[in-house]
Write a structure and sequence with these properties.
The structure is a homodimer of 322-residue chains. Chain A is an alpha/beta fold and 322 residues long. Helix content of chain A is 37%, strand content 21%. The first copy, chain A, has two domains: 3-114 and 304-318, 2-Layer Sandwich (Nucleotidyltransferase, domain 5), CATH 3.30.420; 123-299, Nucleotidyltransferase, domain 5 (2-Layer Sandwich). Chain A is built from ten helices and 13 strands. In chain A, the strands form three sheets. In chain A, strands 3-2-1-4-8 form a five-stranded mixed β-sheet. In chain A, strands 11-10-9-12-13 form a five-stranded mixed β-sheet, sandwiched between helices. Chain A has a three-stranded antiparallel β-sheet with strand order 5-6-7, with no helix packed on it. The longest helix of chain A has 25 residues, at 231-255. The two termini of chain A are 22 Å apart.
């Protein structure tokens, strides 16, 4: 049987994988993203290499691409991507021509949400054609809105940009050009920044993990230190978790979904992140005594959510659905 | 032909009206809302009087009720209403029994949005089964979300509570029990508070309009003074307009609608409110150079939007639709 392949192209890494109809990941290939100051052609060469490595000579029935950037509502073009060279380019048709196969394209957060919807934490919502918010806490916040069991893409295909909702007036400067954006307070970057600011103020395991150089601190180090009981790392998670709950309360006030799913690297901390978030959600959500507050749960698919969702997307496209 | 009647029960006033299929308002009746510290029965007596006055002996085909409060997703119960005595009460069935006619129930912001969708500023969105955000700026912010040309009510029927999204951490205390809610900065109350705080600091027409007593200041006074060129009143509109744009940018980032409609008493100021809002929206919205920024327009139906929408709602219910 011909393969369906998902490719997740992020700001730093490319992950490609064969994915079964059940969402199981087979052979994978990894590459480094070349950055945005290169020819678009180079990115496409790298994607081609990764796809060829996964295919390994077998026939390919379709390739789904999860891109870290704005994808138009029709899934044809990458309008803009902060870490990739694509600017308003019809990536889907170009790659379909190049590869001679069906290609489907969406942004990475939408693909991760599709994966959770079909095979993960939002399965029940999918079955019941319900509503859910799916967040991916990585470098920033990826977001997707599921309404009536389907992705809501919006007029420009830009729905779900929750990370750039302003939560602090004149707050921290954001890469988007704005300030006080939610992802400045609730993301992997926010976690590391928070922990970094506390280094030197209090004795902490983090100092040892980063070799005394706060610039070398990473999210996984904060997660590991929190696991070991380090108070500074735990405070950083408490702060990010609190902001998670406050922002989720805003989204729930607006959409009233049945479920909120949180994935991405930061969610590896599990309840250390989610418990303070649930407390803040309950406290901040308007009318919470008079409503069913949606469960705030961890995503199930981990770092492969993007490729699983992208492969599912192209499976549907090949079947004439979207 | 039997009448379809809409009733809008707000925090201070009850407005009832016969409404044609085209959304034209016929005979109206007005009452005062008795407040929340009375028997539910008393409110229902007042609604009955108002409906009887509108009917004036003619047969009634259905009554639609727009209530200022949380209505459940099935349109059966008022779960909670800050200004009304109803607490989790099955208002719809009770009034249908009492009046022996079809009764439909929804919250006032949803009814206003339905009216704009069928007969007002969101007609085109309705025809194209598109997406829109509808805001009603009165005492607070009423909100509704139109998705695929239909109201999105959410799991609890509480979608669209945009006014209680937190925009300022540890901000102004809100009646909902939270703090820093958007409606504390962007509403009729916010307008009056802002103007009040400037009285005494600068010479202003407002001082004369409120007889030298800032406690007597009302929203319409601020609107009138701004119309006369009063700078303090204009600053108050500029501030509320700025907050309107910032909050709308948050909603557009999340939902990416084709249109944003602003109604309610504060919108009577027209571009004095909407121009600063458009500027702030363009500036605050993520990726605005790469997207179609939705038009931010004034609602068309004025203070009768609620009764028009409620009557439309019961017309659909009587036809077996919802």
């Amino acid at each position: 049987m011909a393969l369906f392949i998902g490719v997740d192209i992020g700001g730093s890494k490319v992950l490609a994988a064969a994915v079964s109809a059940e969402g199981d990941v087979g052979r994978v290939a990894r590459r480094t993203t070349p950055g945005r100051r290169v020819e678009a052609r180079l990115v496409e060469d790298i994607l081609s290499e990764a796809v060829a490595e996964v295919a390994d000579g077998e026939p390919v029935a379709g390739v789904g691409i999860a891109a870290a950037g704005f994808v138009d509502a029709d899934g044809e073009s990458v309008l803009f991507a902060p870490h990739l060279p694509w600017r308003d380019e019809d990536v889907r048709a170009r790659l379909a021509d190049r590869w001679g196969t069906v290609v489907a394209l969406d942004n990475d957060a939408n693909c991760a949400a599709l994966a959770e919807l079909r095979h993960g934490a939002a399965r029940e919502v999918g079955r019941q054609a319900g509503d859910a918010v799916v967040l991916t806490l990585g470098t920033g916040i990826g977001g997707a809105l599921i309404l009536g069991g389907r992705l809501h893409r919006g007029r420009n295909g830009m729905a779900g940009e929750f990370g750039h909702m302003q939560v602090v007036p004149q707050g921290a400067a954001c890469e988007c050009g704005g300030s006080g954006c939610w992802e400045q307070y609730c993301s992997g970057n926010a976690l590391v920044r928070d922990a970094r600011e506390r280094i030197g103020l209090e004795p902490t395991l983090l100092e040892r993990l980063c070799g005394g150089n706060p610039d070398q601190l990473t999210g996984p180090m904060v997660t590991a230190a929190a696991e070991e009981g380090d108070l500074v790392a735990r405070q950083a998670f408490a702060s990010v978790g609190e902001w998670l709950g406050v922002g989720v309360a805003n989204l729930v006030a607006a959409f009233d979904p049945a479920l909120v799913v949180v994935g991405g690297g930061v969610s590896a901390a599990g309840d250390r992140l989610l418990e303070p978030a649930r407390t803040a959600l309950q406290r901040s959500l308007v009318g919470s005594p008079h409503r069913v507050v949606p469960p705030l749960v961890r995503a199930e698919l981990g770092p492969e959510a993007g490729v699983v969702g992208a492969a599912g997307l192209v499976r549907s496209a090949a079947a004439g659905l979207r």
